[in-house]
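User: Protein folding is very new to me. Would you mind checking the protein record under this note? It all follows right here:
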Amino acid sequence: MSRTPSAELAASIERRIVDGDLPGGAKLEPVRSAAQRLGLAPNTVAAAYRLLAERGLVKGRGRHGTIVESRPRPTLIPEPVVPDGMVDLAFGGPDPALLPDLGPVLAGLDGSSATYGDPAVNLDLEMAARAALAAEGVEGRYLAVTGGAVDGIERALGASLRPGDAVGLEDPGWYPIVDLVRAMGLVPVPVAVDGEGMLPDRLAQVMGRVSAVIVTPRAQSPTGAALTPERAAALAALLAARPEVLVIDDDHMGPLAGAPLAAVGPQLSTWIYVHSFSKSLGPDLRTAVVLGDDVTMDRLTSRQMVGPAWVSHILQRTVAELLRSPDVARRQVEAADAYTERRRLFHAAMESHGMTVVGTTGFNLWVPVDDEDAAVRSARDNGFVIRAGSPFRHQSGPGVRVTVSQITADEADGVARALAHPPRRRTSRAV
């Protein structure tokens, strides 16, 4: 079926935006003059501009006309290069030695698989996940399975928001979420965090602007922050005054984070809780479960059904078997204890060198520094690769992210010593 003239014009303008011929901030030709030049009716041009606005590509500014929105490309920051012989404290993930062995579970699965018309959610996984989440105080009528935490977050945002809507995000926060929000035509609004998560007073300052808020209840990256029950209650009290705001809890690490769950959303009217198994059971499983309020879950699952429809039941059954395994449960406790001890080693080493660490949970911890480049360079000069904080932050102060999921006592002391004594900036002398 051929496109309408307005759709054709919108597509032509979009190609110019994508190609860079119309950069962010550029002003589109006024409706009447464009209509006269193109030989189209003014209503046709106006309809094309509306289509572009609905996609978040342009925005009407009244007497100032229609302006092309700035649409930053995804950050796509490459992982730091780790030369041979250097210690990688930048990768951000779990210790592979602490993940369960998938071989026996996969070998024990029968050959059956889901087919068209089968339920989207495997019953065994639903029962196992509901039992685990109920123990942490999260329950909901409907449960969905998505291809990881980011997939669940994207589906929740896409089901409830429109391009141009604003989303409150942690600052510093995980930059792929910022990329996701921008790619969806949404507007990221930074909200400062401390060691106990998002700050209520900073959230209060943006409450009138946002249509959604994403919080990480524990193991926040890059800081290692975790919400306390008091902080979660304070955030929920603010958000309760705006029941239309979607609140997303991104519980990407679960009980391995090293702190009890203090979720914000389940206390509210409009919420989604996303629990990923990638950090605890294996990154390649790419599986998460989602709970939420009835309306938002209906939107999310309805949209999922006209897309991929379901996540592979082979993956779902694998996760279900892992969750039900006593051996895996024992290994999870051991892993949680190991991660706790490694965080303790890093905190102790940093404290012994007079340095401050933000956060006490997860794989990654945040160290405030005066000069990120100098800190990264000092660590590298001493045999350690860490992450500069700049990709993670918006308005917050400088810092570095250190992955401690595999750190040893000697490595903790070595990187602490390097961060405590960064090289001085080189200054040019007057001739």
Confidence is low (pLDDT under 50) at residues 427-431. The first strand starts at residue 58 and ends at 60. The radius of gyration is 24 Å.
